Amino acid sequence: MKITTPLTDDVVKKLSAGDKVTLSGVIYTGRDAAHKRIYDEIILAKKETRTHKLPFDLKGSVIYYVGPTPPKPGQVIGSAGPTTSYRMDAYSPLLMEYGLRGMIGKGKRSPDVIEAMKKYHGVYFAAVGGAAVLLAQHIKKAEVIAFEDLGTEAVRRIEVEDFPLIVINDIQGKDLYEIGVKQYARA
Q: Into how many domains does the chain fold?
């Protein structure tokens, strides 16, 4: 299935754990240090009863957990493989509350994140680990938009075309990792 950003309720509702998709459009990069800064800004804005100042609009957005390597001459971006996602679990529910719809990484998510996906209509995709060079070929444009001091972990706005993904967790709470274990156990 081909999907584009920003992700809408209609699209997210159609996705089910195990679906193979290709994603096109604008997505953002961010790892734990960037997530903490975004999270802290939302919390501070709540305490001060002001509008938060985020590096991008979370509504309908997708975050790719990646710290790409520097590009070689003639490349848009260097290797861009997924980072283990659980390091973002403390921050993800709040970001979903503010509109984040999709997350891309590798590995399992916590029960709190899965509940937030159900509540706020978010979805978690896996990108194939170990295929960083191949994944980078689907990135057509990349630019740092925030937290440049974080180096490779700075927030980037990237444009992807037919970026290959697998739905791991959907809005019904299904988990492809658990489904796979059960299928293997029956075999």
A: 1
